[in-house]
Amino acid sequence: MSENLEFKITKLILEHSMKDLIEFADSDVIIVGAGPSGMTAAKYLADKKLKVLVLERKLSFGGGIGGGGNLMHKIVIKSDALKIIKDFEIEYKKTEFEDLYTLDASELISKLATGAINSGAKILFGYSVEDLIVREKPLRVSGVVVKWSAIDLAQLHVDPIFFTGKAILDATGHDAELIKILAKKNPSFAINVKNESSAHAELGEKQVVEFSGKVCDGLYAAGMSVATLHGLYRMGPIFSGMLISGKKVAELISKELGK
Ligand code: 48F
C-alpha cells in the first residue's frame, strides 16, 4: 500500500465516510433540517439511544437562527424554554420584561449542535432531501430520497440514493418541504397544506407547539413546517416554540418507537 500522505488522507476520508453512511443509511429516526427544531429533536431522540441521522442541505448548522432578528445577533426566548436552554448549557440573560430572555444566536447554534452530537446524533451537511419513500398497506412514509446538494446546484441529471428510517421528521422550516412533496405526489395520504399565516407572536408560539406531532404514519413535523402545514401564525425571532416543538416531537417519536 502506498505510503504517501495524500493517499492516506483520501483512504481515511473514503473509508470512514462510507462506514458512517452505510451505518446511518438505515436509521431509527431521520431528521431533515439542522435548524432549531431539528437539532433539539435530535438531542432528545439520541438521549434515548435511538440511531438519529440529521440531513442538512447547507454546509452549516442553524437554519434561521444565525440571522437573529433582522441580522442583529440576539434572539428572544420565553421562560417555558429555559429547561431546554439549560439542558444544552446555553447562557441567557434576564430582561426588564417578565418572562422574556435574550441569548446570542451564535451560541444557540453551536450549543444546539454540540448537544445533539454529544448525545450521539449524526449530522451530515450537503445532503438535500428531494422525495420520500412510501409504502402502501399499511400506508406510511418509510424513508427519504437524497442527493448531495452540490448535484442540485450544478443542475446535473443524477439519480438519488435512499435512506430508510422508522420515523422521518420534517424540520425543514417555513417551506415544509417533505410535507409538501408528500401532499403533491401522494393523494392517498390526503394531506392538505394550509400555508403559514401572518405574524402574531403570542399565538404563533403557542400554536406551533400545540400542533407539532404526527403528519401520517412514519412522518412527523416540528418547527415552522408545522405552521405551514396547519396555517398557523408566524412568530419571528422568538425561538421558544421551535425548541419546545422539537422536544415535544422527540418525546412522541421515542414513545412510538418504544423508548
Ligand atoms: O428554517 P429552519 O431554522 O427551521 P425551524 O427549525 O426554525 C425556524 C426558525 O429558524 C425561524 C422562525 C422561528 O422563529 O421563524 O425561521 O423550523 O431550518 C430548516 C433547515 O432545514 C434545511 C435548511 O437548509 C435549514 O437549515 N432544509 C430545508 N429543506 C431541506 C433542508 C431539504 N429538502 N433537505 C435538507 N435540508
From TrEMBL:
Binding positions for glycine per the UniProt entry: R234
Entry annotated with the keyword Chaperone: no
Top-level EC class: transferase
Biological processes per GO annotation: thiamine biosynthetic process; thiamine diphosphate biosynthetic process; thiazole biosynthetic process
Record field: catalytic activity: hydrogen sulfide + glycine + NAD(+) = ADP-5-ethyl-4-methylthiazole-2-carboxylate + nicotinamide + 3 H2O + H(+)
Entry binding sites for Fe cation: D159, H174
Pfam family name, one: Thi4
UniProt keyword annotations, A-Z: Iron, Isomerase, Metal-binding, NAD, Thiamine biosynthesis, Transferase
Required cofactor(s): Fe(2+)
Binding site for NAD(+): S37, E56, R57, G64, V129, H157, V158, D159, M224
Pathway assignment: Cofactor biosynthesis; thiamine diphosphate biosynthesis
GO molecular function: iron ion binding; isomerase activity; pentosyltransferase activity
InterPro entries tied to this protein: FAD/NAD-bd_sf (IPR036188), Thi4_fam (IPR002922), Thi4_prok (IPR022828)
EC number(s) on file: 2.4.2.59
Quaternary structure (record): Homooctamer; tetramer of dimers.
Similarity comment text for this entry: Belongs to the THI4 family.
PANTHER family in the cross-refs: THIAMINE THIAZOLE SYNTHASE
HAMAP family in the record: Thi4
Function in brief: Involved in the biosynthesis of the thiazole moiety of thiamine. Catalyzes the conversion of NAD and glycine to adenosine diphosphate 5-(2-hydroxyethyl)-4-methylthiazole-2-carboxylate (ADT), an adenylated thiazole intermediate, using free sulfide as a source of sulfur.
Protein name (Swiss-Prot/TrEMBL): Thiamine thiazole synthase
Lineage: Archaea, Thermoproteota, Thermoprotei, Fervidicoccales, Fervidicoccaceae
